[in-house]
Design a protein that fits this description.
Largest sheet: 5 strands, antiparallel
CATH class of the largest domain: Alpha Beta
CATH architecture of the largest domain: 2-Layer Sandwich
Structural class: alpha+beta
Oligomer: single chain
Number of domains: 2
Shape: rod-shaped
Number of strands: 7
CATH superfamily of the largest domain: PAS domain
Distance between the termini: 200 Å
Helix content: 55-70%
Strand order of the largest sheet: 4-3-7-6-5
Radius of gyration: 48 Å
């Protein structure tokens, strides 16, 4: 009986050895695939069912890109709560990143622009929405945001913030120049009308002078006729005396 037990144990060891060899081959193949970048996630069985773990080597380039980009990157809840932001966005709002995450986005927006920000959040969709707002630190941001893809099972918004303060400054300068140009055009138009009025007045005065001259000529002619008649009468009177 003891011999039979030893034989069974040996058979069991052989089976276990084969299973371990098979698992070792699978593990080596998985490691080779991970190292070569052929996979970006693995499925691990657990007490609560299978769980998906992303491979850091695949995730790192994307995280690095987000952290190094020139624009601010933010993940928002539909209520405007900042779930995540990169360092660039913290620099734009001029606060430490640990004080930015977990606060409401509206805290950084000037009161006059908060209503249109709320309206844009209420109308969120998977299509990109663009909005320009002013921050309390006097910067202007162009916000481009949309909902996360549905397959990610998240009710969050992806937001990219671009500093457009210099563009806004140039726009203000252009508006000022446009205003000055409009005032100058109005002044030129006013002067032109004055000149036209003056020319009209001059023409009226000239016509008046012409009419006065004609009247004066008629008066002179009539006076000459009267004077001639008087001279003739005076001459006759002298002749009779």
């Amino acid at each position: 009986m003891a011999k039979i037990s030893k034989t069974k144990t040996k058979e069991q060891l052989i089976i276990e050895n084969e299973e371990l060899q098979s698992r070792l081959v699978e593990t080596e193949e998985a490691l080779i695939a991970i190292r070569s970048g052929e996979v970006d996630a693995i499925v691990v069985p657990g007490k609560k069912g299978e769980q998906v773990y992303s491979i850091s080597s695949a995730e790192t380039p994307y995280r690095t890109f987000i952290e190094e980009m020139d624009e601010g990157a933010v993940t928002l809840s539909k209520e405007g709560l900042i779930i995540y932001c990169n360092q660039r966005f913290a620099e734009l709002v001029d606060e430490p990143i640990e004080r930015v995450i977990g606060t409401n986005f509206k805290r950084f927006i000037v009161p006059n622009d908060r209503a249109k920000f709320d309206k844009s959040l209420a109308q969120l969709s998977h299509n990109k929405n663009v909005l320009i707002i002013s921050l309390i630190n006097s910067l202007f941001l162009k916000l481009s945001f949309h909902l996360l893809p549905s397959y990610l099972q998240g009710d969050y918004c992806i937001l990219v913030a671009t500093d457009v303060s210099e563009m806004k400054k140039e726009e203000v300068k252009l508006l000022k120049l446009s205003g000055l140009l409009e005032k100058k055009l109005d002044l030129i138009q006013h002067l032109r009308m004055q000149l036209i009025d003056k020319k009209i007045d001059q023409k009226v005065e000239i016509n008046k002078l012409k009419l006065a001259n004609k009247k004066l000529i008629r008066d002179i002619t009539r006076h000459k006729v009267v004077e001639t008649e008087l001279r003739q009468k005076l001459k006759k009177m002298k002749a009779t005396t």
